[in-house]
Amino acid sequence: MPLPGAFDASLATMVAVSQGAETPLIRPPIAPGIVPLPLMMLTIGGIFLGTLAISRFSLKIGVPAILGVLLFGLLINPSVTLFSHETILRLQVLSLSILLFNAGLETDIRSIRGFLEYGIILAVGGVILSSLMLGMIIWFVASPDAGGIELGFRQVPLAVAMLVAACLGSTDAGATMNVLQLVAHAIPRRLSALVQFESSVNDPTGILFLGLVIGLTTVQGHSSEHQVVVEQLQMFLQKIGSGLLIGVVVSYLGRFSLNRLVRDSNQLLILGIAIGLISYGVAELMGGSGFISAYVAGLMLRNHTYSNERISPEALQQTLLPFNTMTEITVFLIFGLSVHPLELLPALPEGIVVALAMMLVARPASVLLLQRFSPFALRDSLLVSWCGLRGAVPLALSFEMVDAIPRLRGIDPASVPSLVQNAGGIVFCVVVINLLVQGLTLPHVARWLRLSEEVAGAQ
Question: Most CB atoms closer than 10 Å: which of 12, 113, 164, 210?
């Protein structure tokens, strides 16, 4: 099979030289649709440099830096075509596995003593409750069959509404902590630890819940609906169990590597990337959840004991931090580059309604419904409910959602293109609105709740 583009031309040149032919002065033209490698490298380098300027400006006005990166990618979208759809999907999986592994590394069990059970309940139950409520709200206001008010929505089937809601289930720890740094002195340390823990753990929960929704709503051969539900629930539990087990096993490989193989801090980045990718790959090959495995591997690795204080999980986390930042920026940037700006306009009204429903109804209600399990005061829970910033995971999951819509049971093939465009646009608009509104108001909400009194009382 001939090799594409410039590489094919270079290979032909080398073969000609090896056979004694003269080197051609003019290289063969690059195949249509292939971006020249120097131009691609120049573009990518310029884009990443631009994200630094955008991030600095975003932080000055109190907006999460990743929102600026997302809008920057959207702004330059019409003039840049660098990645195919398949490449984007692979980059998203790669990025999420590293992000979740690092999220596990950031979770210190000692910092959440006294509320570990509540943190898990909030992370798992909160995602499921908020997603179910948001899905029903989207369907109610969008479907005349539900007896609701259309509010200008195009009719959305219940399955599509649940897919959109499942995409938006998990929160972004990086974006939340980035904003909370502005008022770190005014928030109790235990509450900040809870927010970070919940935001980290609910990422794999959101990913698995979307997989469950896709399994329950898409075509599954000739199986009956009852069989489909049973099979998908079994697969859901299998993925969780296998992911947990493999993550624990791989963490011991990481522990052995830190104690026996790593001799210099320069090798920590290699180890971190290797363990993150291995945990994902092994779990997926064995039928488990790679994302659960990556998170658990990082979590267990952080909470093992080690012989060398200098070569430790804390040092590994600090080494991975720049790479993790680049990975998160890449997720937002790629999504901005892959979305056509004009296609977002029809979904803007729906996006605003869904964003308000998520911020004002679904997220607060899910947190308050679980308040009975909380060791925190009500005003602490109110801050947690407003800390539900959406980020990299919902954007990455939207690609999987879009691929699932054509396979939904009972879907009209003629409506698929508009549903795909509308669903993707809603997720994009909700993430942007959520980061903008909650990113700007979160410091003010923290001051309004007077959480600084708890900080003063603890000192």
Answer: 164
